[in-house]
Amino acid sequence: MENTVTNVMAKVFDEVEASWEEEVRFLQELGRFPSTLGNEEPIQRFIADFLEKELKLTVSKVIPDPEKLSSHPGYSKPEWSYENRPVVVGEYRASGEKQGKSVIFQGHIDVVSPEPTSTWSYDPWGSTIVGNKMYGRGIADMKAGVVAMIFALKAIRSANVELSSDVLIKTVTEEECTGNGALAAIEEGFKADAALIPEPLGQQGLTAQVGVIWVRINVKGLGAHTERADQAVNAIVQSYKMVDALLEYEKELNNRPKHEAFAQHPHPNNINIGKIHSGDWPSTVPSECTIEARVGFPPGVNPQEIKDELKAFLLKAAEKDEWLRENPPEISFYGFHAEGFAIDPNQDLFKTLEKAHQVVEERPLTTASFTGTTDARFYNLYYDIPSTCYGPTGASLHGPDEWVDLESVKRVTKTYAAFLLEWCKYKA
């Protein structure tokens, strides 16, 4: 029996090798889609066609409906439309008696802006290959993982191996904000016994992640021509006090007792001042300044608690300033309402992933806690579907010259294939 397993796996790995150049070209194609927020439809159409025509999967498209999702505890409030922005689900449905367990492979195709592109050495939408690296916005985070999960199933199908349980391939929108794409697909009934998400963690398994909210702070000033600036109130200058308060809150968060999953991390709860908008003329004192920030917080804490606490903290800081006391900032939240989680690695999902990892990497699987958020939270927190992340090696995520190591993409493709053979089982 062991020889049969070895022979089947070798046959599938041979298919990964045989289709490697096609896999690289497919990744290059995905990298050339500028699939930023609101611009995901073309890449989703491309992927849906591939899943249907090349993998012979049953393909569905799901459009998130805020009205249907709004009562869900994992829902995040958007400020944009979902029209023509589908989530794609490809279904491999095993025939006959189910012997293994079903699985979801889920990757996000939305990417953050590459601006300013002047800081890049390569075209962020060019999928440039230099040596063993491919460069581009979203190449590592996480189009390479998406390609690996698709081509792992493709290799199994090309090897004429029939899996004994179902596989769902999901490419979702809005992982970089809200997570409503993943949530919508689950709520439509696309569920399984486990979910594996190919985040670029350098072939490590994810066991914990922080929670995340986005906050918007609108600071009022008293505008004027600069000839009377001494009698005006500059909203930009007033906003400094709110920036300082955010950084003070960050210190307070990190001075609290740490969640055990982050006990060894020196600074797990990060606050990022991500956007500042103000002014429209150099010779006009601005009347308004808007700050937008991302706030991380420990697992086990309700996002609403952090929102309430942060709002009170900022308003208390405003009380110390004469202008802000009389003209308090307007504080609101949008885009992310994400709870953190920690998952026990002593369960079948991790055991199977480690077995597959060892076959390819010939070393034990390591696990890590993540100071960001991923869509794995939905499965673990709300649906009792164990989920982790495991993906290729890359760097400069959200920064200039983002890249992925292509050799790691090939190895991860094989690991996913080995995982499918073990988790779903197959018909001899």
From TrEMBL:
Keyword set, alphabetical order: Cobalt, Hydrolase, Metal-binding, Zinc
Needed co-factor(s): Zn(2+); Co(2+)
Keyword Glycosyltransferase tagged: no
CDD domains the record matches: M20_ArgE_DapE-like
Peptidase M20 dimerisation domain: residues covered: 208-321
InterPro entries, alphabetized: ArgE/DapE, Bact_exopeptidase_dim_dom, Peptidase_M20, Peptidase_M20_dimer, Peptidase_M20A, YodQ-like
GO MF terms held by the record: hydrolase activity; metal ion binding
Family: Belongs to the peptidase M20A family.
NCBIfam families for this protein: DapE-ArgE, PRK06837.1
Protein's recorded name: Acetylornithine deacetylase
